[in-house]
Amino acid sequence: MNPNEEQYLKLASYVLHHGHKKADRTGTGTISTFGYQMRFDLSKGFPLLTTKFVPFRLIKSELLWFIHGGTNIRYLLQRNNHIWVEWPFKRYVESDAYQGPDMTNFEKRRLTDPDFRKVYLHQKHLFCRRIIDDKAFAKKWGTLGNVYGAQWRHWQKRNGGQIDQLKWVINKVRKTPFSRRMIVSAWNPEDVPSMALPPCHTLWQLYVNDGKLSCQLYQRSGDIFLGVPFNIASYALLTSLIAKECGLKPGYFIHDLGDAHIYLNHISQIREQLNRKPYKAPTLWLNPKKRSIFDYDMDDIKIENYHHHSKIRGAVAI
C-alpha cells in the first residue's frame, strides 16, 4: 500500500482518460486538463515514485542548486546532472558563436534521425564538457537567466536592493508560525522574458499546525510523465529540510496544478506505468548533524529502502 503514489497515478489516469488534446509551445502536442490537486501525507513515507525509477540524486542536486541561489548549469554538470542542459545548448547552437554541424530543429530531428542523434549527442557532450572546464564559456553560455535560485535568494527590488525570500520565510516559520503570509514566489513578470524557461512551479506557501510544517505549491504547467514526479519529490524534500531546521515534523505537501498535461509522445509510457503495482514508499534520511538548510551537501541527504520498477524513458519537450 502506497497512498502517496496513488495520488500521482490517479492524476495520470484522470488526464489520460478525461483530458483533451491541446497544442503547445514545443509543437509536440498534449492531452491536458486545467486544475488538479494532490495531497501527500509525508508521515506515510517519502513520495518518490516506485512505479518507475526516479533518480533522486538529480532531485537533490537541483534543489540544493535552487537553495544556494544558482542560475548557471555549471553547478549541476559538476554533479553529473544534465536536466537543464537543453535550453542553454539551444541558445548556443543558434548563436553565431557556434561553428559545428547544423543543429537546426535538433529538438525534433534527434527523435527521428538516428544518424543525426549521434551528431547531436556528441555536440551536446562537447558543450557540457566546455561548460565544466571553461569558466568564461560557462559564464556566457551556461546561464539560464533569473530562474528559481535567483528569485528565491536574490529577488530584485525596485530600489536596487534584494530580498532573500528563502531566509525570510524560514524566519517567519520560526517567529510567527501562525502567519498566513509565508509565501515564496518564483514568478517575476519583469524577468520572465529573459529566462530560459519561465518558472513552472511558480509559488509556494508554508503552513504550521500541531507541530507540523506543510507546503502548498501552485504549478502553472506540469509535465505529468517527466516533470511532475521530480516536482513532488523536490518539494517534499524542501518541506522536510525546512521542518527539520525549525524543529517541526513534515506534514503535508499539497500540489496544485494549472495545466496538467501528458505529452503525446509519452502516452505509451504512462500506460505502462499505470499497469505497474507500486512498492512501499521509501524513507528520507537527513544528516542529524546539519542544522541549517544552507549547510547541506549531497551526502547529507539520502533515500532509504527505495524499491522500484525499472526506468521508463521519454524525451523531454523543449
TrEMBL record:
Q: Which residues form the active site?
A: C200 (nucleophile), C200
Q: Main location per UniProt? A: cytoplasm
Annotated binding of dUMP, by residue: R25, R180, R181, R220, S221, G222, D223, N231, H261, I262, Y263
What is a single cellular component term in the Gene Ontology annotation?
cytosol
User: Catalyses which reaction?
Assistant: dUMP + (6R)-5,10-methylene-5,6,7,8-tetrahydrofolate = 7,8-dihydrofolate + dTMP
Which keywords has UniProt assigned to this entry? Cytoplasm, Methyltransferase, Nucleotide biosynthesis, Transferase
Q: What positions does the domain Thymidylate synthase/dCMP hydroxymethylase occupy?
A: 6-318
Q: Where in the cell is it found?
A: Cytoplasm
Record Gene3D superfamilies: Thymidylate synthase/dCMP hydroxymethylase domain (3.30.572.10)
Q: Where is (6R)-5,10-methylene-5,6,7,8-tetrahydrofolate annotated to bind?
A: D223, A317
Q: Which SUPFAM superfamilies match?
A: Thymidylate synthase/dCMP hydroxymethylase (SSF55831)
Pfam families with a match to the protein in the record: Thymidylat_synt
Q: What is its EC number?
A: 2.1.1.45
Q: Which InterPro entries match?
A: Thymidate_synth/dCMP_Mease, Thymidate_synth/dCMP_Mease_dom, Thymidate_synth/dCMP_Mease_sf, Thymidylate_synthase, Thymidylate_synthase_AS
Q: In which pathway does it act?
A: Pyrimidine metabolism; dTTP biosynthesis
Q: Name one GO biological process term.
A: dTTP biosynthetic process
Q: Molecular function (GO) terms listed? A: thymidylate synthase activity
What HAMAP family has UniProt attached to this entry?
Thymidy_synth_bact (MF_00008)
Q: Which family does it belong to?
A: Belongs to the thymidylate synthase family. Bacterial-type ThyA subfamily.
General function of this protein: Catalyzes the reductive methylation of 2'-deoxyuridine-5'-monophosphate (dUMP) to 2'-deoxythymidine-5'-monophosphate (dTMP) while utilizing 5,10-methylenetetrahydrofolate (mTHF) as the methyl donor and reductant in the reaction, yielding dihydrofolate (DHF) as a by-product. This enzymatic reaction provides an intracellular de novo source of dTMP, an essential precursor for DNA biosynthesis.
What's the subunit arrangement here?
A: Homodimer.
Q: What protein name does the entry list?
A: Thymidylate synthase
